Amino acid sequence: MNPNEGDVRRLRVELGPQSYDILIGPDLLKRAGAEIAARLPGVRCAILTDENVAARHLSTLTDALTEADLSFETKVLPAGEKTKSAEYLLGAVDFVLGTRMERGDVVIALGGGVIGDLSGFVAGIVRRGMKFVQVPTSLLAQVDSSVGGKTGINSTHGKNLIGVFHQPSLVLSDTNVLNTLSEREFRAGYAEVVKYGLIDRPDFFEWLEENWQAVFAGGPERGEAIAVSCQCKADVVARDEHEDGDRALLNLGHTFGHALEGATGYDSRRLVHGEGVAIGMALAHRFSVRLNRCSADDAERVEAHLVATGLPTRLSDVPGDMPPAEALLDYIAQDKKVHRGALTFILTEGIGRSFIARDVPSSEVLAFLRECT
Amino acid sequence: MNPNEGDVRRLRVELGPQSYDILIGPDLLKRAGAEIAARLPGVRCAILTDENVAARHLSTLTDALTEADLSFETKVLPAGEKTKSAEYLLGAVDFVLGTRMERGDVVIALGGGVIGDLSGFVAGIVRRGMKFVQVPTSLLAQVDSSVGGKTGINSTHGKNLIGVFHQPSLVLSDTNVLNTLSEREFRAGYAEVVKYGLIDRPDFFEWLEENWQAVFAGGPERGEAIAVSCQCKADVVARDEHEDGDRALLNLGHTFGHALEGATGYDSRRLVHGEGVAIGMALAHRFSVRLNRCSADDAERVEAHLVATGLPTRLSDVPGDMPPAEALLDYIAQDKKVHRGALTFILTEGIGRSFIARDVPSSEVLAFLRECT
Ligand SMILES: NC(=O)c1ccc[n+]([C@@H]2O[C@H](COP(=O)([O-])OP(=O)(O)OC[C@H]3O[C@@H](n4cnc5c(N)ncnc54)[C@H](O)[C@@H]3O)[C@@H](O)[C@H]2O)c1
Ligand SMILES: NC(=O)c1ccc[n+]([C@@H]2O[C@H](COP(=O)([O-])OP(=O)(O)OC[C@H]3O[C@@H](n4cnc5c(N)ncnc54)[C@H](O)[C@@H]3O)[C@@H](O)[C@H]2O)c1
Ligand SMILES: [Zn+2]
Ligand SMILES: [Zn+2]
């Protein structure tokens, strides 16, 4: 499926003149300079990163740039979701403008989804659009946020409400940088990997059931899992670049997941995004069983795999008190906007057979949540 | 050239799926609701405007929206260039998010270029892109800033350095709203109208020589001049949507003009943008004469027309002291970035025959400026 060069997989995201490569493989960071220079010769680089990632991986990147004769300047931001704010956006924009780089120069995002989303937005608005290279360092960023061109920051009105679509020129996913990620962060990112199998790749889900330990351990299976995930996301995005239709499938597990994130006050000690998605996917399958769309066997198989990897699947797996079903439904309604009492949900007819349901009665959701809580 | 409906001229800007209409004519503001509803049925409207324009024209717009059953919310910003800042951008974004409008709803810019540039940027980044309608109320905005999709704000590092390309769904240019514009603002906008004739429409320039008084007075000639100007800008933009090549022709008069704006500290009491452009265009023609590219007759004819309308054409027309030639050259070099002592300039071979010269020695520019000061 993916043409390999040595251990490196190359995936081409076809978006006409904005097509780009995703490279996935071990120790790619050491080749970052060469890969960037091959595509953007002589470019100047503005690196944005966070303090955790900088401590572990920044010098590998800057050494690689130096070796390829590319000049760079770096800004290190605090780690964490709070960095996706107007304040840090403006600071980063000011940093890039201060380097006097031009539109043809490049912003490099070295970090997880937070750095990727912020840096892509910066690249999208400085001089009305600079070049952009993603070097995702979390599993979530490698399989999800670095693909698709969505960039942005949060607002007091909600998450990811301010941003632009801005495609990168290149995505460099070094599978070994993930070795410094905490087990919990890795596992949370893995929930999104499982999601792709559940959306429309039953074979991939089966492969994950057999190979997840190798994916966690960092063998070549890790690169394979990341490549298939990126391909799956890129396929959906290519069908729907600006997010009006099919892209909604990527929200499998996210409607319930976001409600749980809201209900736990986005407190990462209690729940991180991928954990919410894991519970959300398990719930989406069980809810589909309840609506007679999915077999109980498939729902149990999904749950069993998530449990095997250490991911939560039940509301009771979240430490601390959960609000009652009614309150959870309110979070869902806030997230999705109710149309005449009906909600849009991603449901499934079984493993790898998810679909968009646009008319799920909120009364059914409430009844289901009452059973769960 | 422009299909008319009654007094209204309709121009189609062809940009594939992002194509849109520019409507130009008297009292169009009264029809704004109907025209918007015809293209964006049932849309909710977030109006951004400035205090000067709100006092004169806001109620006409909101009455028209109400008549067309479109709901709206309004934010009135201070008038003036300072409003094109990160602070007002964030305030406007927050206002639009606070209305809970969706991606399919519309931001309406009612005002001059400042409001248009800011509002377009807001529309471009709220929810990664909302609909956008321009209702330009200054002549400059009608003939220049409302066409082409450039939006943005200023930074401490320079003007218009932060922004996006975001095309409107519709531009409504009411030729009568210009009647409340000050004579000086109207005249400054007129300099940009003359620019289009000088770029590549010698017949239009000749027509302006004969009809400029009717354009100023507000007859049907005003609509004609605006329509031709928009067509000229749209043609250049269609050839070069993201500004890498031909679009540079639109900078005729602007290299010298920006230097003068810089040298006068952007003090609008001394010089407004269009006045700088008028002087810049006169200088560009005289400089082309000096370089043996243009006849002295043509340069004099350009100057005579600008003088007839009351526009400045000489450095000495600017009240207060001008810095010496060396300092002006520094402003030019800052604006254009010098490549090995050579500058890119828009020069001309005569009226309507301008061209991009990429290798003008800065020594020639300096010598010319010494003659002028
Ligand atoms: N743009 C999109 O399409 C999209 C899709 C999904 C998620 N997102 C966004 O992504 C963000 C979440 O991404 P995330 O989970 O990567 O969060 P993150 O960027 O905050 O990274 C998680 C933590 O891991 C640390 N980290 C990252 N790489 C590391 C490494 N190699 N070694 C050690 N520590 C490392 C970070 O410093 C941080 O503390 C959210 O803001 C979400 O909205 C965006
Ligand atoms: N986006 C582009 O392609 C582009 C092109 C050229 C210029 N611009 C930008 O446009 C801006 C200048 O535009 P401008 O000259 O319209 O400035 P402006 O918006 O500040 O308007 C000038 C003044 O006229 C007032 N005004 C506007 N319409 C009026 C009316 N009908 N009656 C009474 N008063 C009215 C305004 O309140 C303001 O005080 C600059 O910021 C420039 O960078 C952008
Ligand atoms: Zn997710
Ligand atoms: Zn101008």
Automatic annotation (TrEMBL), chains A, B:
Any binding details for the cofactor?
Binds 1 divalent metal cation per subunit. Can use either Co(2+) or Zn(2+).
Which reaction is the catalytic activity of this chain?
7-phospho-2-dehydro-3-deoxy-D-arabino-heptonate = 3-dehydroquinate + phosphate
Q: What is the main EC category here?
A: lyase
Location (main, coarse): cytoplasm
On whether Hydrolase is a keyword of this UniProt record, the answer is no
What is this enzyme's EC? 4.2.3.4
Q: In which pathway does it act?
A: Metabolic intermediate biosynthesis; chorismate biosynthesis; chorismate from D-erythrose 4-phosphate and phosphoenolpyruvate: step 2/7
Q: Note the CDD domains from the entry.
A: DHQS (cd08195)
Any GO CC annotation of this UniProt entry: cytoplasm
Where is this chain's protein located in or outside the cell? Answer: Cytoplasm
Cofactor(s) named in the record: NAD(+); Zn(2+); Co(2+)
**Binding-site list for Zn(2+):** 192, 254, 273
> Which residues does the annotation say bind NAD(+)?
113-117, 137-138, 150, 159
Q: Where is the 3-dehydroquinate synthase N-terminal domain?
A: 76-187
Q: Which UniProt keywords apply?
A: Amino-acid biosynthesis, Aromatic amino acid biosynthesis, Cobalt, Cytoplasm, Lyase, Metal-binding, NAD, Nucleotide-binding, Zinc
Decide whether keyword NAD is in the record. yes
Q: Which residues form the 3-dehydroquinate synthase C-terminal domain?
A: 189-338
Pfam families under this entry?
DHQ_synthase (PF01761), DHQS_C (PF24621)
Q: Name one GO molecular function term.
A: metal ion binding
Lineage, top-rank taxon, reads Bacteria
InterPro entries linked to this entry: Dehydroquinate_synthase (IPR050071), DHQ_synth_AroB (IPR016037), DHQ_synth_fam (IPR030963), DHQS/DOIS_N (IPR030960), DHQS_C (IPR056179)
Fetch the NCBIfam families from UniProt.
aroB (TIGR01357)
Q: What does this gene product do?
A: Catalyzes the conversion of 3-deoxy-D-arabino-heptulosonate 7-phosphate (DAHP) to dehydroquinate (DHQ).
Which family, according to UniProt?
Belongs to the sugar phosphate cyclases superfamily. Dehydroquinate synthase family.
- The name of this protein is 3-dehydroquinate synthase
